[in-house]
Queue: 2 jobs
Job 1
Amino acid sequence: MVKRRNWTRRELLRGSAAAAGTLVISGAAGPLAFARGSDEIRVGVVGCGGRGSGAAHNCVESSPGVKIVALADAFADRMKKLKTDFEVPDDRCFVGIDAYKKLMALDDINMVILATPPGFRPKQLAEAIRQGKNVFMEKPVAVCPAGIKVVIEAAELAGQKGLAIVAGTQRRHQHEYVETMKRIHDGAIGDIVSAQCYWNMGGLWVSKRQAGQSDIEWQIRNWLYFTWLSGDHICEQHVHNIDVVNWAFQDAQPESIHGIGGRQWRTGPEYGNIFDHFGIEFFYPGDVRTISMCRQIEGTAGNVSERVVGTKGFTDCHGTIMGENSWRYRGPRTNPYVQEHTDLIKSIRDGKPLNEGKRIAESTLCAIMGRESAYSRQQFTRSWFLNRCTLDLLPADDMKLSDSRPVAAVAIPGQYQLPGFVRETRRRGRG
Amino acid sequence: MSSHVNKVSGTNAGAVAGAAATAAVLGQIAHARGSDRIKVGMLGCGGRGNGAMRNCMEADSAVEIIALADLFETQVRATRDRLEKNEQFKDRVNVADDHMFWGFDCHEKLANCEADLLLMATTPAFRGRQLMAAVKAGKHVFTEKPIATDVAGCKEVMEASRLAKQKGLGIVAGTQRRHEFSRVALMKRIHEGAIGELVGGQCYWYGGGIWFRGREPWMSELQWQCRNWYHFTWLSGDQICEQHIHNIDVMNWCFDGPPAKITAVGGRQWRSHNESQINTAKEVCKAYNNGSEEGWEKYNGDIWDHIYAEFEYPNGARCLSFSGHSPGTGRNGEKVVGTKGVSDCSRSHTGPNAWRFEGKNVNGQVQEHADLIASIRSGKPLNEGQRVAESTLTAIGARIAACTGQVITWDWLMNESKQSLVPTQAELMAGKPLYHPIATGHDEKV
């Protein structure tokens, strides 16, 4: 465990004072006109697509004294909206796969928003912490165990440096969830004996390949559909619900994983190599087994939720407990996508930086394990996966947008090799 | 549990002394023939059918095999030869030439012979009409599981089961876990609240795969399909129905009825890439298409290889059903979770009232026959028809939930679904093969 200590504002907001005199901040209009001082939060956005743009606006809305002052993205066209919204000058807009490094090298930035495809997250987080920036990062935070290790190391370093890390698992900042979880942890439903979580939905956007696009450019623009970029939809989306179940277990981690999944409906080449459904069983300590189900198939029944069952009752995890200690949340409700930034920035200004890095890495790891179990149809332990599985999908440091990269094969049980896995003797069923 | 007497040995020991009385009771219930034998006809002479016959003969020394029926003449003849050479049972095998039946209407001919009890172990697709014919002809029935492959088939069995009840006929199903002493004693405790209220559970059957049969030169295309039945949903109901029903039935047993609501995902990720299976499918394709491999895929079967379903029982408990075939980790079993403990659904449970079965267990595949015959003799024939139809329909409901991507309710299955996959008897007699496309996960709810 990294020891926590309180940090001074000066330490936390390093860079802002030095930059204040030299930079011309244009206009500075907007709803949160703020007398610039030493606690201004000066934000660089890495990844300016839909979620990055959303997060930037959420961040500015969340607290006074927040400015978006630099942008980075692999593609100039993706940056236009934020550039206009926040009047970011050309020389502070960085384009290219390594643009994040240039942005993070800016001295006057004290926080970054990381919202590129998740495959890039580990290295970008490591760089942000190395450069002394506070971080808001979207989920998931990695797509492979190698990436998870990078994130956990960076989170530890952030702790040592007194930097904050908040992740975009906004349910952790949603009052209904927070208050319900407190009660679960205080025993309102007794011991947890069962749980379920789901992200069943229709389809999402797809970006078909355009003439002249290299493999890498097309895959990054269509990143949802490639495991090395999104981690597959179980990782990219369902991590939210898996994170809630982990939370209910007070962040105790599943010991073993077994799952199935496939690609049954969404089979066209524009959908890369990911699956369209997963069903995973997580084995938490004490052999408590939980259901995790996710699907992206157009026109099918939707369900995005969690449910936790204890010896004294059950809960939807966000405001309702039924059983011996029935309860309903009646407090205020805020936009959790804004609240997560409010909490982050307050923690920085209070000198008590939140650090959610390890926790979100662990929840992401659960989703990755589910995926790999479904790809291989093998059951394995978390300990094996984290320590012995050699799967490494991290992008190479010298990757270029013009590079070739064939689409990875869709995982077929019996053909898919889970790196480092030595096949166990099959346990056969009886008739 | 010493109170559980092994009824098999008890029956055998008293067989000679009780023979006359037995015959009398049997005669009242079934046909008055004045014989001390229980005349058994076998429908379906494959692996399980032969197994069921041996189990039945082992269960009761009064059992005599008098008729054999199968889709294929070869199976019937091979089975008689095998039985007549069996040192243990040959004295109780008396199958005359005119008591051997084959073809798609063999069940009708069998139902009209003088057997008291019919054992059914053909592919499950035809069970509804077979059972109906048997019950109408006044036969007691042992039927292998599952009992249908579609919703219509389940309802036909429910109907036949009602009729059997009216006629005082017994129906026992080959979900043998229901006849294992350890499970019977355990379930009694669970139903009495030994692990508190049931709030969750899991059941599994995930295995490595199954045979894929090529054709014999004399087979029509429909005959080949029926020989390779496992791989066609209309014939087997898919693996969740054909195999995993055992575990689903145990979950339903725990909750004393079927789930109210089912959500599921699933697909076919491996079978279409199984090389040896593909090679066989191509050979079959060539045989029926003048040597051309074009369109071989339809000969590769349409069943999936994994379904992950959630059953929501009427009390709100949500349980996992995990089934499939592929390389990978295999699993088989059940677990049920209560507010005061958990159980392996087999022989023990934890909690403040922790318990373990210490009695002598039995082979459920023999005991189920012993229980059926004992119930007939006692004049209170067991009737498991409705129950096994419900468990089969649970499996089919999960398959439909996965294939359509929709939430399937029990009410919808019972009252609205029009699903019917199996050809009529006339269509079968006409001999046309039947291929359905592989389900997509986006299919229409029927």
Job 2
Amino acid sequence: METRGPIIRFALLEKVLNLARANSLWPITFGLACCAIEMMCAAASRFDLDRFGANVFRPSPRQADLMIVTGTITKKMAPAIVTLYEQMPSPKWVIAYGNCAISGGPFVFEGQYNIIEGIDKLIPVDVYVPGCPPRPEALIEGIIKLEEKITGWRRFPVAERRW
Amino acid sequence: MRALRKAFGDDVVKIGFGLVGAGFVALLVLLLLGLLGMKVWKLFAPYGREAIRALVGLVGVLGFVLFNALLLVWAERKVAGHMQRRIGPKEVGPYGLLQSIADSLKLLGKEILTPRFVDRPLYYLAPIIVFIPVLVAFVVIPFDARLQVRDINVGIVLILAFSSLNVIAILLAGWSSVNKYSLIGGIRSVSQNIAYEIPLLLSLLPVILLAGSLSMKEIVEAQSKAWFVFYQPIAFIIYFICAVAETNRTPFDLPEAESELVAGFHTEYSGMRFAMFFLAEFTNVFIVSAIATTFFLGGYKGPVLPGIIWFFIKSYVLVFIIMWFRWTFPRVRFDQLLNFSWKFLIPLALANLIVTGWCLKL
Amino acid sequence: MVAEQLIEDIRSSRPGVEVKEVPYEQRGYWFDLSTGPEDIEEVARLFDRHGYYIEDVCCVDFKEYLQLVYHFNHWDDPRRISVRVNLSAEDPVAPSISNVYEGAGWHEREIHEFFGVHFENHPNLSYLFLHEGIDFYPLRKEKVPVPEEKKRLLSSLPVSESDDVFFVNMGPQHPSTHGVLRLILKMNGEYIERAEPVLGYLHRMQEKMAENRTYLKYLPNASRLDYVGAMSYNLCYVRAMERLCGIEVPPRAEYVRVIAVELNRIASHLLWLGTYLLDLGAFTPFLYAFDDREQILDLLEGITGSRLTYCYCRFGGLYNDVDEDFVEGVKAFLKRMWKRFKIYNDLVTGNVIFIHRTRDIGVIPKEVARRYGVTGPNLRASGVSYDLRKAEPYGAYRELGVEVAVGEKGDALDRYLVRLQEMENSLRVIERAIKELPDGPYRTEVKKLKPPEGDVYFAVEGPRGEVGIYIVSDGSTTPYRLKWRSPSFSNLTCFPEISKGVLIADAVSILGSLDLVIPEMDR
């Protein structure tokens, strides 16, 4: 379902709004499997997500704007995920965290009958964070990359690769 | 309205808020000019000085409410962070000071979703009604000896009467979002608020007896010799507990109980409507602390600094203690909550009142 | 002893049952009973009368026939007895033992949906794990479609109740970090009349995958079953294969395994502590617990390479040796951790609100625990001193010994205190192990893992209870059948019983205190 953007556009207003949206991403509490523990670790004291303003985990999808899909998606769970995604008001973003959310992970084998290989078969994904499970620093890097996607400007610049 | 919004998307929101903001800025400029001495009141001459004073006061109050909300949102996250061995927001501006501004801008720019089956008039009304008692309460709070918008001689009754509107707003929010969890959250909130309003009143009555008046300013003036907290320590503790319960903060935050009922009565609200509930809650926290300061801690009275600074210091210390409660205690179960109020707090407050009245008669 | 008395009774009442004694060191159980489907209910009743608890119910598809395997064990006489029943492959029917052992009810539902065995007299034989629309029995060796008349059992929700009550659905998306568990609660006002958990939202086909992978390739998947206490699962799988193939493990490897498992146990209990208090509404202990847990994760990451899902124990020993850094780090951690208990006791244990939320909530009586197969700290909190590290010692626990923490009443407060005590006991075990750490090789070389034919059962004491694995091998390099006995599954079977007539807030408290991890239930 396409949402048409607004007809009138204010460039400076869009820039300011995008900066505000990037600095105050509110995730939805949505942990499925092992990667959820690493997400909780990322929200804990050592790898603090609150530094970037992203630690207000809202339990209701109507108040959240970031969905971090952590863990394997089974066929039983898939309708619930799609419902949750559709309940979130736009603008909304999705981070696929962990190998299972990217492409099924270590549970793909010949004759598998119950998992969906990757969340991007169901909902559009903005950032992919690989790993099994990825370290919490990887989640922080994923959020910084998402911020770069929203605002066009990267917070902690990385040195350019020469190869 | 709906056709307009469909055509222009959420730009209507942006434009509308732009206009309101422009009007607000204009009023602030007038206020500034007036403070600087320019004869701004000639504009309002037909209406008399009291009207100007009321207008200026209201604008100041509105500005303070918004500033206070921004400050408390930032402070809550910083305080929580430091109590939990981490730092709170740090990247967004120096010391994370711009965090609340980023949050509010983001909420302003969010899509305003209305679920299909909600009860429209009530659904739209609830966030508005939740803000009314907040603004009215600020009319009578004495920030300084002469910084009070209007010194009504039944000041505290006004505040308490309007704070019951809070309950109606929550019930409307819970009922109109056609959702089992919101309904349960709304009903829990109603019974909790009703149960804790009674000991709140009963614990304020001894102070009113001591001061001999219902006007907030006179109560502060009656504390010139000693603060009332030394005369009425039990009443202070009861009042504080009831205040935490009235504002739906932990340990009494069952209506918003996250781990039990998704998000309670404001589950179906998104964007700026949700921000209204959020703002109203933080401003309520400040109001109950301000009332506690006025009634028990001497209001704006203090030695060296100007009164308004003392007032803010005392109020914000109490706000900090309320935040401290949130990050320390687990949640109380619902029947234990009601039991605590009806079977313990009300008899204690009544006993306190009777003892106070008896002592005063002697 | 109890086992001999039981066998006497069985021989006298049902002479058709064959009883064999089996070498424990190779098989993991002591006695092997074979019976026909008509005798199994009476045999189960005899087991019940003698006080056995149901450990596991499993089904194996030997293509010409299906075999049901029941494992029973006793708290005072911990010698495992397994009972086998052979059923025909075309129309497998067996009587249900859920009238005797209610905990077997869910196991039988699982066997029904994966193998197609029909259990007579079962109160609710509907699907537990699989999604709507699946039309074959997944764990059979060939693809067997579901017959038409059985398709009405696919839906697992009860229908047509009266108007007075209403249903509240908790989950599968939880704010309370349990994972994807869905509870359908039939409410009467604020009181629960019946709670019906719906599982299967994280069913990741572990058992089918094991049949498609070699033993070595399946090793990383074992620890993803219970990611919080992953070391126990890793250890259980590796030791089961070592028992089956008769591989000797050097003593240094045994000691380091014990240290790693106990560290993991402390980490798991810390995570439980944090999330339980988060359920109850206290936000801060969550962060303190995670802080301590990070220290442990750093230590374990130094030797294993992963923070969460370990693959450290390998067949014959360990993956990597342990160096001086680790030993010094463990000593420093021990010194620090002893002081941290004071913080938790100050903040939580003495808190009046916390005590009111947990005292006398969710009492599990001993009989209920026995019939449902509850193990681990939940059982010990009810007053039964049964710990597999002491009852069936394995590895270096024979030399080190373990103190067992026991509660009194079995309410949520007791479960909390037992787990705190267990953390302290684990610290003591680690102290002893670090002091006596022997030198030597850390691994015996295993050239090619070719296990003999036969089956083996191995059980360890995980942080949640008894973690068991039952492997049937047909002599090839992939397992023929691999069945996990997961403690959370058996612990959750008693939830509908103990949550009758409680408030919703209490249901959340009980669920949290049972310490469930969903992936090991759903496998």
